[in-house]
Amino acid sequence: MESIMKLESLISEMTEIVNATDEVEFNLKLAPNKWSKKEILGHLCDSALNNHARFVKIIISSYPIAIQGYTQDDWVRVNDYQNQYEKSDVLSLWQNINRAILRVLRKAETSDFQKKCVLPDQKEVTLEWLLNDYVAHLIHHLEQIEA
Hints:
By secondary structure, this protein is mainly α.
């Protein structure tokens, strides 16, 4: 599946971008209410954690499951990526969660990708759609980190 291959390549790409980013730039907050690049990567850890659970629940369920939203600003604040994590630690966390997602998706049956879930807005989508959306979200934030 194309999205699985793209996720695999994004792990390498993000690793190169983060490692090439100067520590000062990575930690810089342009405004008190704006995330630093470190916090953006921390947000991607939170997203990966939430989506890993979603993907597993969809795969093991025989009926459409309800997907819960999460308050992303609160997750970043509570995890305190800015002050509690070194650059290498937040990168390692992100890499490992995404590798776990890849393991789950590679073990999934082709039919699992057509299983449905219900988003918080009550829209019904497939696991394939959710995965594609997850990858698009990663690309969006990777571009912010790279900028």
